[in-house]
Design brief:
The complex is a heterodimer of chains A (about 250) and B (about 475). Chain A has about 250 residues and is of the alpha/beta class. Chain A is about 15% helix and about 50% strand. In chain A, the strands form two sheets. Chain A has a seven-stranded parallel β-sheet, with no helix packed on it. Chain A is globular, with a radius of gyration of 18 Å. In chain B, helix 4 runs antiparallel to helix 10. Chain B has 14 helices and 23 strands. The chains are: A alpha/beta (about 250), B alpha/beta (about 475). The interface between A and B is medium-sized, with 33 and 32 residues. Strand 14 of chain A pairs antiparallel with strand 23 of chain B, so a sheet runs across the interface.
Chain lengths: ~250, ~475
């Protein structure tokens, strides 16, 4: 992406039922700062593909109004970039947020991912999953703050973060914050770090696979999970092909 | 449960007329620091350390994160007051007015029944210390730290304020400048103590600051359990507790530090506790935080030896007007280290409980295994609970699992207990005690009962 394409003005868009927004950083008209409002009762899908390197901060704001729902997927594949992404979500009464992010760092990327989820509406619902796999010298600083406001009684929220470091020089900082100001709620979060065990690698190597092939297979399995319930079969295939090409 | 414990507020809030305060003054300057050091007849190195800490204190600003401390007026705090001219070895020799308070708190009774040794500090000075003869013979040292500075400088100087240097934060620097009293505990190599040792700290006077320092050295292969209790009466004027705890757990040693803190709701409890854990050693922190206006307390384990491990277990109860900002820090420096953090919080009547944790895996600390679990219980819709677990992973081989949850008392559980004849309030207290059971079960029975009872007292009026 050319830095000249970005601007600091927050452009606002209103989304209606059935809208499916696909953003790619490699697109010419990719905007630095966008604010989306999902109308009451509308169901919206969103796919963000970060497939081009640039060193700027990007902002996305979401206003999910009452009874609306957002299925959000964010895929980060860029090389050699130092990026800061800020996602702000306001979730209204009986609104549903399903958010899934997959970050794959293969060189010396530095991801800064800051997400805020403000559950303000009664009986609002949220599931947030952030999965990352870093190799080489990739770094991740990921903060996901869930704020359950006093007005969000009967809400049900959960954030799960996974950090997979597959090299000795990869680093990560993850902070899954949970701030709760209502008592009749279900709220939880989890965070974990994992690495392929030597035993796993040995087994797969004994089947004739190289370390790189094993890692790629692992990433493709994460990609399958990321795209698992996409209804658009063509889009799903394209997405998996994109990740395969990236590897 | 006895009548004294039932009258919770009157028990903790009762205070003695503090005649000794006539010779004390609020505010802090170099003159006071020199006075404290001279009165304690300290060696030159300690005065130098105090003055250096004071310099750091003056330069540092209040923390920019966490609860606001703006209403804490450090110029109105009395930093030093000597409640007794001499330390007693027999309970009968303790001044009558002080003894009366500790008698009510049950200190001598606890010593007779379960403890291997006990120390009691009133304001800035330790007024009573004892240790079982059997342990003295084994070379265990359990002393007022003021005394230990004089008697065992070769043991104190290499360790004192090394784990919590003045540069750590503003209140560590303040502590380094004005610390007074506290405990020095030395467990020789291979000595294993079966019964716990205890110290009790009491702030009695109005607007007082208490800055006791606990220095513990557990030599190779030794084992011990040490318990601290703290309290202060309520005056409507802010008081400050900025204690310091440094624990050195040497190779193959095991040490458990338990504390049950019940400060008055006027008290700012800004405590620093750190442990250095060596090869194959194990450190356990068990803590209960009740009372206080604002508590900021994050016991820290630094795992520097291969195979070192640490457990952090804690309960915090935030009632009306209180902020319990507590948590744990574990820094994994060596290979094959492990840590386990379990924190429980309860918020009620607008209280705010916050778990703030840091788990850091340094480069080269391969195969670190870490488990963090935080659960919060919110008893009404005006209270709040926050969880801020920071995880810094600089070694790819670390395995970390963090899990947190928050919610209210299950209505079905309440209904079941009420159908068994319990009042709603009793049923709620029982459920809360079950909620904190993983922590209380790690305490000696007497302390476990005390913590459960404190929960019940905090729960009074919580339902209906």
């Amino acid at each position: 992406m050319n830095n000249n394409k970005l601007n600091n003005k927050i452009e606002k868009r209103v989304l209606k039922d059935g809208d499916f927004i696909i953003e790619r950083t490699s697109q010419k008209d990719f905007a630095q700062a966008l604010s989306f409002q999902i109308e009451e009762g509308a169901k919206v899908n969103y796919l963000l593909i970060v497939d081009e390197a640039f060193d700027l901060a990007v902002i996305r704001q979401w206003d999910i109004q009452n009874n609306a729902s957002l299925d959000s997927r964010r895929l980060f594949l860029q090389d050699k970039a130092h990026q800061t992404w800020s996602f702000q979500h306001e979730i209204g009464s009986k609104a549903v947020l399903s958010s899934r992010s997959l970050l794959i760092g293969m060189t010396d990327e530095q991801f800064n991912l800051n997400s805020v989820y403000n559950f303000s509406g009664q009986a609002s619902f949220g599931r947030v999953n952030i999965d990352s796999l870093l190799t080489a010298k990739a770094q991740l600083n990921c903060v996901a703050d869930v704020n359950v406001l006093p007005t969000a009684q009967q809400s049900d929220t959960r954030v799960d973060m996974t950090l997979r470091l597959e090299s000795d020089e990869a680093k990560g900082e993850i902070t899954p914050g949970l701030n709760i100001a209502a008592n009749d709620v279900k709220a939880g979060h989890s965070a974990g770090t994992f690495r392929l065990k030597d035993e796993d690698l040995f087994y797969l190597r004994s089947r004739g696979l190289s370390t790189q092939q094993i890692r790629n297979l692992f990433i493709l399995s994460l990609a399958q999970s990321f795209a698992a319930d996409l209804k658009d079969v063509k889009l799903k295939e394209d997405l998996l092909a994109l990740i395969n090409n990236y590897l | 449960m006895n009548e004294e414990i039932n009258s919770h507020d009157s028990l903790w809030d009762e205070y003695n007329q503090s005649e000794y305060m006539k010779d004390s003054r609020p505010g802090l300057d170099e003159e006071l620091i020199r006075f404290i050091s001279a009165e304690k007849k300290e060696p030159a190195w300690m005065l130098e350390k105090r003055l250096a800490s004071f310099g750091v204190f003056q330069e540092m600003s209040l923390p920019t994160w966490g609860p606001s401390l703006e209403s804490l007026d450090l110029d109105k705090i009395t930093y030093y007051a000597r409640a007794s001219d001499r330390q007693a070895e027999s309970w009968d020799d303790v001044p009558e007015d002080i003894k009366r308070t500790f008698d009510k708190l049950g200190i001598p009774k606890a010593e007779q029944e379960v403890l291997a040794g006990v120390g009691a500090q009133y304001e800035s000075t330790v007024i009573y210390h004892s240790l079982k003869a059997e342990y003295k013979r084994k070379g265990v040292i359990f002393e007022d730290l003021d005394v230990a500075v004089q008697k065992y400088p070769e043991l104190v100087e290499p360790y004192f304020m090394k784990l919590m240097p003045a540069s750590l934060h503003k209140f560590a620097a303040l502590h380094g400048a004005v610390w007074s009293g506290g405990t020095f505990l030395y467990i020789p190599k291979g000595v294993k103590l079966k019964e716990p040792l205890q110290a009790y700290f009491r702030m009695n006077a109005k607007g007082m600051g208490q800055f006791e320092h606990t220095l513990i050295i557990v030599e190779e292969g030794a084992q011990a359990h040490y318990i601290e209790g703290c309290s202060a009466p309520r005056y409507g004027v802010d008081s400050l507790h900025a204690g310091g705890v440094e624990i050195y757990v040497k190779e193959g040693a095991r040490f458990r530090y338990s504390s049950v803190e019940s400060w008055s709701k006027d008290a700012y409890n800004l405590n620093t506790k750190r442990a250095l854990v060596e090869k194959k050693a194990h450190m356990e922190w068990v803590g209960g935080n009740f009372g206080s206006n604002v508590t900021m307390l994050y016991p820290c384990s630094i795992l520097v030896g291969e195979g070192a491990t640490a457990d952090h277990l804690g309960v915090a109860f935030a009632n009306e007007g209180q902020i319990q900002d507590t948590g744990a820090k574990v820094i994994h420096v060596a290979k094959n280290t492990g840590s386990n953090i379990i924190m429980k919080s309860i918020s009620k009547n607008g209280g705010k409980a916050l778990y703030r944790g840091l788990v850091e895996v340094k480069p080269g600390a391969t195969n670190a295994a870490i488990s963090v679990k935080c659960d919060a219980l919110l008893l009404d819709d005006i209270s709040s609970s926050d969880t801020v677990p920071v995880m810094k992973i600089h070694d790819a081989s670390a395995a970390i699992a963090h899990e947190a949850s928050a919610g209210k008392i299950n209505a079905e559980d309440l209904f079941y207990l009420r159908s068994r004849g319990l009042k709603e309030e009793e049923a709620a207290a029982m459920i809360v005690n079950g909620f904190i059971e993983p922590i209380t079960k790690e305490l000696p029975l007497e302390y476990s009962v005390e913590m459960n009872r404190m929960v019940e007292l905090e729960m009074e009026g919580s339902v209906g």
